[in-house]
Design brief:
The chain has 163 residues and is mainly beta. The protein contains 1 helix and 13 strands, in the order H-E-E-E-E-E-E-E-E-E-E-E-E-E. The chain has a domain of 59 residues: SH3 Domains (SH3 type barrels), CATH 2.30.30.40.
């Protein structure tokens, strides 16, 4: 019986080479997808034709938004697969909104009083977000503070490393 089911399954697979697990899912492996969105965290940032010693082919300014399509060591590709290669140094990029502002601090406390009808209690809501100043790449030696007070930095691969 098991051999029969195995043969039946095999025959079914042979006759269905174009079927997918999910209807309508078109997987095109040649597409180049965005890894992340980042911002320039330096006065100017050179765009190079290749990582490390590539020819400078352009410049970006502080706060410019870039989309990352590939990462190679400390370099981020900001062009799609079929476009001419454009690479920037990852250590001059940051991820948080407004992270490129030198003395930007997102710490704010908002107070509001709301009345809980069932309990008749007043609540005070405080919202605290991270304080950010400068770059927080691990290679620079500076760290960022997370929303709950933890320290972290970004590795050359773009991942967070908690301290």
């Amino acid at each position: 019986m098991n051999k029969f089911l195995l043969c039946l399954g095999f025959i079914t697979l042979i006759h269905m080479p174009e079927s997918y697990a999910f209807e309508g899912l078109d997987l095109n492996e040649s597409e180049f997808h965005t890894i992340s969105k980042k911002f320039v965290n330096n006065e100017t940032l050179n765009i190079r034709s290749n990582p490390i010693n590539g020819k400078v082919i352009g410049k970006l300014d502080r706060g410019d938004e870039v989309y990352i399509y590939d990462i190679s060591q400390d370099w981020s590709r900001i062009s799609q697969k079929n476009d001419a290669p454009k690479w920037v140094s990852s250590k001059y990029l940051c991820s948080a909104e407004y992270c490129f502002n030198r003395n930007y601090s997102t710490t704010k406390i908002t107070s509001s009083t709301s009345k809980d009808v069932s309990m008749n209690k007043n609540y005070q809501h405080k919202k605290t977000t991270q304080t950010y100043s400068g770059s927080c790449s691990c290679s620079s030696g500076s760290f960022c503070y997370g929303p709950r007070g933890g320290l972290y930095c970004y590795t050359s691969g773009g991942n967070k490393s908690y301290r």
